[in-house]
Amino acid sequence: MSADPSAPHYTLYHPRWYRRRVSVWWWLQNRAYAGFVLREVTSVFVAFFAVVCLWQVRALAQGPEVYARFLARLGTPLFILVHVVVFLFVLFHAITWFNLAPAALVVRWRGKRVPDWVIIGSNYAAWLALSVAVAVLLLRG
Amino acid sequence: MRAITPLLWLLFSAGGTVAALLFPIHLFLTGLAFPLGWLDPPGYESLYGLLRHPVTRLYVFVLISLPLFHWAHRFRYTLYDGLQLKHLTALIAVLCYGTALIGTGMAAYTLWNLR
Fold first, then answer.
1. Is the whole-model pTM more than 0.95?
2. Are B114 and A61 in contact (CB under 8 A)?
3. A127, closest residue in chain B (CA to CA)
4. Which terminus in chain A has less CB density within 10 A, N or C?
């Protein structure tokens, strides 16, 4: 049977999806993709500052000398430069977070969906109010 | 893992909100305005006095812990999608959430034991 060379060649059925290999840099091909990845990457800078806060609390707990060393470290040019970059990314996180809030949270009031600009606006208002409160509390001392 | 996914998403979401609302002002003051001398920083005694208050301790705990979980969740998916590391799912999840847990534990320990 298999001796007939003119017979069509059949193989067992092996399903195999065709998948084009995607470069690791796929997100650079398009501005929207790049924006998405940039937004995702802000989390690293958020974590960085959370660690700085933890470091500050631990320095405060260990006494005035340790805390003075912490402050001196924050004043070095390297830390200032890093904090400028971290600040820009944290701002980017805040702005994209507020602007996406209506997509994550649908609020209904009297049976009607609250318009997006109200939700976004209240986020920015809360941001302003809390920022002022924190600044007043820290600058009073 | 699947059972606690809603909880992890909630932590991500709450942490993102805390970081968006409070990190810019804290970072601006602590990281830039105070070290550069634009504004006068609070002294050690007054800052420590403020930190000792129970409400402040809770606030600082939330300020540190929730954004760490926000990072853990988001960074996990950044690694999966951005670097195509889907095959390392379990390892990445343990590293990310584990780091957030360690940070949370350290914050809780320090804030709880303030004299």
1. no
2. yes
3. B21
4. N
* ipTM > 0.90 for the complex: yes
Residue B75: exposure state from Cβ atoms within 10 A (0-12, 13-18, ≥19): buried
Residues B83 and A24 sit within 8 Å (Cβ to Cβ): yes
Note down pLDDT in tens along chain B; length 115 residues: 678 889 999 999 999 999 999 999 999 999 999 999 999 999 999 999 999 999 999 999 999 999 999 999 999 988 887 777 777 888 999 999 999 999 999 999 999 999 8
A122 to each of A30, A126, B29, B68, B108, how far by Cα in Å?
32, 6, 24, 25, 31
Return the number of CB contacts < 8 Å for A and B: 154
**Residue pointed to by tokens 């977070």:** A97
- Per-residue buried b or exposed e for B16-53, using 16+ beta carbons within 10 Å of the residue's own CB: bbbbbbbbbbbbbbbbbbbbeeeeebbebeebbebbee
